[in-house]
Every structure is written in C-alpha cells, then in structure tokens.
Amino acid sequence: MIRILHDNDAPARGGQTSEAEALIARKAVRLEEAERIVAPILADVRARGDAALLEYARKFDGFEGSTVRIPVRGSLSPEIERAVEVAAANIREYARTQVPAETFVEYPDGRRLGQIVRPIDAMGAYVPAGRYPLPSTLLMTVIPAQVAGVATTCVACPNPSPEIMGIAQWLGVTHLFRMGGAQAIAALAYGTETVPKVDRIVGPGNIYVAAAKKLIAGETGIDFIAGPTEIVIIAAEGNPRWLAADLLAQAEHDVDASAILLTTSRRLAEAVAAEVERQLATLPTEGVARPSIEENGAIIVVDTLDRAVEISNDLAPEHLALHDAALLAKIRHAGAVFLGPSSTEAAGDYASGPNHVLPTSGAARQRGGLSAADFVKVIAVQELTPAGLARLTPSIAALARAEGLEAHARSAEIRQEARQDARQDARQGARQEARQDG
Fold this sequence. Notes:
Blueprint: E1 3-6, H1 19-48, H2 50-61, E2 69-70, H3 78-96, E3 103-106, E4 111-119, E5 122-126, H4 135-148, E6 152-157, H5 162-171, E7 175-178, H6 181-190, E8 200-202, H7 207-216, E9 221-222, E10 230-234, H8 240-251, E11 258-263, H9 266-280, H10 286-296, E12 298-301, H11 305-315, E13 319-322, E14 336-339, H12 345-350, E15 376-384, H13 386-402, H14 406-437
Parallel strand pairs: 1-12, 5-6, 5-8, 6-7, 8-9, 10-11, 10-13, 11-12, 13-14
Antiparallel strand pairs: 2-7, 3-4, 4-15
Helix pairs in contact: 1-2, 1-6, 1-7, 2-6, 3-4, 4-5, 6-7, 8-9, 8-10, 13-14
C-alpha cells in the first residue's frame, strides 16, 4: 500500500529532511559504492582495449561472439513502424528548435561579434536492454544528434531487441555494438580497436552505467549521471484512476523508482491510494511496481499548493506533472514538466517530442533534459577593425598589467604603434607630394 503522509509528519523546513527527499537521497550512497566496483573495469578496458572489453562482455552480458560490433540490420512490424514514424517526426521537429543559431552583430565601435555552431564528430548512445528493452531511448538519443549534424552515431546495447535492431537501421545509425555496463562506457570513452572514441556519451542505464559515466566525465562529455526514474505530481483535484495510473507508470520502471503525489486533498489522497491497489492487482509488472510504490512512493498531503511547489522545487524531480497550469510560473527546478490532466508522462516517454532522457536525483537543479544543443559547440567569433582595437587598447593594457601579463598588454599596444607609424608615414608622404607639386 502506498503511504499517505501529511506534510507536518515529514517537514522539509529548517534543515530537516522530508520523506520525499529521503527517498531520493538514498540513491547517492549506492552510486558511491558502484564507483568502487566499476573503476577497475574502466582502467582495464582503457589499458587492454578489445581484449578486456570482450572478457567483460562474456562475463556480464553472456556474449559469445568474437567482436562486439554487429551489423546495423533489422526490420519493424507495420504497427511499430507507424508508431516510430509518428514519434520520430515529433522528436525531430522539437529537436530542431533546440539548435543554437549562428549569429553576427556589427557594432559601431569597430567590433564584429558572433558565434558559429559546429557539431561534435561522434556520439555514443547507451540503450538499456535489461528488464525492459528501450527502443524509445534509441530514438531519443540518436535523433537529436542527427539534427545537430553529428556524423558518427555509435549505439551500445547489451542485448538489442528486434525493435532496437529495426529502429537502428531505420534511423541510419553508423555503428551498433552488443555491449553493456561499465565496459561499454569505457569502450566509448577511450576507444578500442573496434569501438571508436566518441566525444559525448548519452542515455540512461543501471547504477553501474551511471557510476561509469561519472568517472569518465572529465575526459569525455556526458549528458548527466542518471539514476532511477522519478515523478512528482501536484494536484489539488483530479481523476483518481488517472493519477494512480501515472504513479504506477513510473513505479513499473524499477524497484528503486520514486513516485510521489502532492495534494491538498485528503479525500483525493485516499482515493488515489485505493486506486493504486486496484490497478496493481491486474498490472503485469506488479512484481516491480509494488515494491517500488511501497518502498519509494508516497502521497503527501500539504496545506497549500504553494507548499507543494516548494517541496517540488527542493526535490528538483526528473518528471513534474502539474494539473494546474497556473503553477508553472513558480517552478524553478524540473527535468520536464507535464501540464494539465491530459499530459500523461508516458506521452513524453514516447511520442510527443521533448526528450525523455532527463536528469534525476536532484540534477535538474543544474540542467534540463537531453537536447540537440548537447551535440553542438557554440564557438565565439570576434573581428576588430583597427579603430575598434584602438578604442579597447587602454582597457586591455590596464587589465593585463594588473594581472602581471605584460605580453598581453604589448600585443595590443604594438598594433597601435604600427598604426601610428603608418599614419606618420602617410603624413610624410603627403607633405613630400605637396612639395613636389609646388
């Protein structure tokens, strides 16, 4: 049975830890344990390349082949292909809005400033295939990279399903590898004889994948360190069946998933709790969803919706569902927001367009979800006219000398000396011409 708590029973004020915060905080401790386990695997793959990669693939993934690279070949049933076409079109359409524009501005003081946008050369997408294969993650990771213009798309999956194989071909993925876990992250980060080194690794995974991404982040770009999934729903009123379904949709992902409802209505809290039990009785994934709901789920009754927003902002949840769209202006931290009772989080998981690869465990305080912008570099460009540099030289020289960097100051001043010499030569030349004419 999902717990019903009152905010007074689980305060988040004055440095105390709320029940909801405690549910999410537990994951950080487990990640530290996982880092100690995966660090030797990363080092081994870095040192021995394919030899180490194959050993770990056989040990952890049951791999029996001679190479982890597999052909990008597969097919889709008509029903799945139609679904993929709809989802991919929406993901691609939304991703196009996220790519920064190239711009240039000419200022009257002699500065021409702008930015160019260039894609990274290669990306790696980790596509989980443990309890549930996730072909939707293939769409969510590869399409934004393609929109950004990334030429080399590498996909790592420990056990690709027929749908994953078919979508990889449908998308035109350039490299597909049957590998998973920390060894896959190491291969993509460092490169091996078979696996190209990539510039950025994205996509969710288990706790060992998350720990590996954290450890290689200093050398290879990552999206973020994703932990178990989570949702916070804020609703003063609503359909208990819909709310229970949304909580269970999150809970069935993982026994460590968190599903939390914040409401001002005790009556709604009790109705949703009862409905969760009714729906669990017929849910095929009850074996996962029930322990998730019982260990990590909660319905918290709050005095006001403002208090619910405060708790949500403290949690910075991966998914935030707001049944009252007027609350959006008060939201500061969330991976993705779902407005209104019709905007079920499952739509975002698959087909509405925004990305489902989102920050968890409070990381939404620092950033939002995966974006086409993650696969490009915004490169500043500046051009100064001689007069423009002349106007800046006193400031450049003063600041450079304040930092003890004399060569910096001289590199600007020497151009002014040359400019003054050129002016003087021009004046002398003009005087000589005038004398000759006279």
